Amino acid sequence: MDKIKLLTSCVIILVLLNVSILAFVVLSKPPHHPIPLERQPKPKEVVIEKLHFDKEQIKKYDILIQSEQKTVDSIDYSMKNAHNQLYNLLSKKTIDEKVKDSLLLIIAQNQKRIETCHFKHFQDIKNLCNSNQIEDFNEMSSELARIFSKNKPPGRRN
């Protein structure tokens, strides 16, 4: 009888130990709840918060945003047109390499124009900062690529 009691006790202890380990693993793992896109702060909000813009700076920042968006939208239109022309070449029996190369060059030039526009936009934001905000801007500048990444729903910008 002693062996049966010992064996039963060991089995009960092992079952309790396994259940407690499982409970620990399941309960200690932090739940992964990604922030829904509609609740993620917009880049504009992040900039205003990180740089502690006052009302006057926010007004000027809004004007900068509108100007940059107008410029980028115009370049985007030109780039989409060039992309369409480029991919329409695929339906032809033979592809004119000169036309293909010129379209690729237009696309590359447009991308450079967009990046130049973005860079100037950030310079303009820096110029909005007062001396107390420059350090915050410099800190934020290392995060700009993440803050303004294209992993956003269509039509959502600053």
Give a structural overview.
The chain has 158 residues and is an all-alpha fold. The chain is built from 6 helices and no strands. It has helices spanning 2-28, 43-51, 55-88, 97-128, 134-141, 144-147.
Key terms:
disordered C terminus, 158 residues, mainly alpha
Q: In brief, what are we looking at here?
A:
It is built from six helices and no strands. The protein has helices at residues 2-28, 43-51, 55-88, 97-128, 134-141, 144-147.
What layout of secondary structure does this protein have?
Blueprint: H1 2-28, H2 43-51, H3 55-88, H4 97-128, H5 134-141, H6 144-147
Helix pairs in contact: 3-4
Number of H/I helices? 6
Pattern of helices and strands: HHHHHH
For the termini, the CA-CA separation is 76 Å
Q: How is the biggest beta sheet arranged?
A: none
Shape: flat
| Mean of pLDDT | 85
Helix content: over 70%
Total E-strand runs? 0
Class computed from helices, strands and strand pairing: mainly alpha
The fraction of residues in strands falls at under 5%
Low-confidence stretches: 152-158
* Spatial extent as radius of gyration: 28 Å
